[in-house]
Amino acid sequence: MAEWLHPALLLMLGALPLGVLQGRSRQVWQLALPLLVLLLVVALPDGARVTLHFAGVELTPLRADGLSLVFAYIFALILFIGNIFALQVDDGAQHVAATLYAASGLGAVLAGDLITLYVFWEIMMISSVWLIWRRRRQSAYDAGFRYLIIHALGGMLLLAGIIAYWLHTGSLAFEPLQGGGPAFWLILVAFLINAAAPPLHAWLPDAYPEATVTGTVFLSAFTTKTAVYVLARGFPGTELLVWLGVLMTLYGVTYAFLVNDIRRLLAYHIVSQVGYMVAGVGLGSALAISGTAAHAFTHILYKALLLMGAGAVLQMTGRSRLTELGGLYRSMPITFLLYMVGGLSISAFPLFSGFVSKTMIIEAAAVEGRAVVFLLMTLAGVGTFMSTTLKLPWYTFMGRDAGLRPPEAPLNMRVAMGIAALLCFVIGILPGWLYAILPYPVDYNAYTASHLIKEMELLLFTGLAFFLLLGVLGGKDKLSLDLDWFYRVPGRQAVLALRNWIVTADGTVRGAFMRVFRQAEDATTHLRLSGWPLRSWPTGSMALWTAIVLATLLVFGLGR
Amino acid sequence: MKAVNATARVLDVLVQRARLLRWIMIGLMGLVVLIDILKPSHYSRFPWDGIPGFTAVYAFLGALALIGLYKAIGYGLVYRPSDYYTKRDGQAPEARDEESADG
């Protein structure tokens, strides 16, 4: 029965009442709906498949297997946690958008064919942009538009790729794509846009920090992780992805140091963490793919926790810049401690969730003897610990007292953060149940003496460097240009120049046409008044013209 | 509210013991490196697997390198005034939301 009630469809229909329900009934439905969907997803048997024939093509709107189910579980779970966090938000549009967004993410990971995937892919874009726009200020509106344009471009590439794939293979099934060819590259680039891989990543740190406090939590979960899933499904073992992933891990941590806004700092860490997953997909071994799925699962939880912590600070103080924050641990101690659980998880601190998942991907690189990949990913771990777990909390909750004395975050926000933190901790100490739901059976133990010693050395000595250089590491009240500069400055200028050129050219052509038209009008008037066409014609002239016409007909063979 | 205040008090006590915490951390660092030296390495996949304390040195130098890298990129290339885009878009910054361009 579970196969025939598509969880994404149920979630989409369930989203509609959120637009009209008010008060307590809206809150109850907001919690009941994700739980219902979670139950439905858990009830999906491994191997469940629904196929239907539509307009001459075979569609597979539902395919549940090891890989898709991990993502489906965590998507349903994070919607529940995010909805607890958003319970006090009195904005129906945001709740509908968040639920539709989660539904389309769920639909995309359960899609067994490319058409279904494409449809959910586009709904994901259209629903998620409202989480940015509902911040209701100019900068959010602008950032949302840039987000929409980039994703619309990605969607177009995906559609073109799907058409090319269909023409080439005659199939629409979503299976691993074979190397080369336009379909391969178009679909890969479309997926990489959503995975926020440089140079196509700038939409993420541009738009996510502009979203609403609760919207960013949902945004961090679905778009990039759907992209990780489709990459793992379509492009496992693609060598390019190993290096792109490694670049992402380092690009993210480097930029995270540069920015001043705490939610933008965390957004750059999404790029960095997704980098581990992209590299894992590129490595392609069973351990790497399982590590990728495990890391996506833990990442969604701890990143949501971190963004909930940063969001709670923004909500309670109205500020989100490192240079304007400090000393909040006295007023928001619970938020601080729960944030730290997220921080220790993302840094792969033993006993926390990141340790059991991130090390799987690094281990997969080590098993294959990829020394450079191993070292660079380890280096990115150093940067992650330094900026997410040391710098951000130090300059927000400790350090210089900015004199802010806000009340602690509301109870529902603390409960949401508490559940996410508890899960981060439980996964960290009992990784067995996470390993049990991975796509491939894994024989991996994170808690070996060597792993523990190396990880503790890594974190403690990173901490040493941080505290030695504490004086120079604070946020700077500056904007750090990223690659979005290319479309925000020269791109914008080019579009404006093109517009001006079209306006000028249009004016010139219209003017020239009207001038010629008027001249012709004048000429005919002049001709009519002169009486020249009505004068008497000599007979010889008429005979000559008739002869010319007949000769022409003869030459072109028209007289036959 | 009770839990919030109690947690704040515990944190305050810890902050007052910052010096003690620092020594505990330094002790822990020494201990971890000591264990690494005494315990033979379990792996021999990479040339550095047998070097005791390699990860500690790598992390410390790596952290310094990352800090140097970001400072160089920031001051050399990408830092701009925080109203860079709002000014460029041809609108007076005060006409927009005050917090619009965060670094």
Tell me what you see in this structure.
- The complex is a heterodimer of chains A (560) and B (103).
- By secondary structure, chain A is mainly alpha-helical.
- Chain A has helices at residues 7-15, 23-43, 66-85, 92-110, 114-133, 138-169, 181-194, 203-207, 215-234, 239-258, 262-283, 286-317, 333-346, 353-367, 371-397, 411-429, 432-436, 449-468, 485-488, 490-530, 539-555, and strands at 49-54, 57-63, 478-480.
- Chain A is built from 21 helices and 3 strands.
- With 103 residues, chain B is mainly alpha-helical.
- Chain B has 2 domains: 1-39; 46-103, no CATH class.
- In chain B, 64% of the residues lie in helices and 3% in strands.
- Chain B has helices spanning 2-16, 18-38, 54-78, 84-88, and one strand spanning 79-81.
- The longest helix of chain B has 25 residues, at 54-78.
- The two termini of chain B are 34 Å apart.
- At the A-B interface, helix 6, helix 10, helix 13, helix 15 and helix 18 of A face helix 1, helix 2, helix 3, strand 1 and helix 4 of B.
How would you summarize the topology of this molecule?
The complex is a heterodimer of chains A (560) and B (103).
Chain A: H1 7-15, H2 23-43, E1 49-54, E2 57-63, H3 66-85, H4 92-110, H5 114-133, H6 138-169, H7 181-194, H8 203-207, H9 215-234, H10 239-258, H11 262-283, H12 286-317, H13 333-346, H14 353-367, H15 371-397, H16 411-429, H17 432-436, H18 449-468, E3 478-480, H19 485-488, H20 490-530, H21 539-555
Antiparallel strand pairs in A: 1-2
Chain B: H1 2-16, H2 18-38, H3 54-78, E1 79-81, H4 84-88
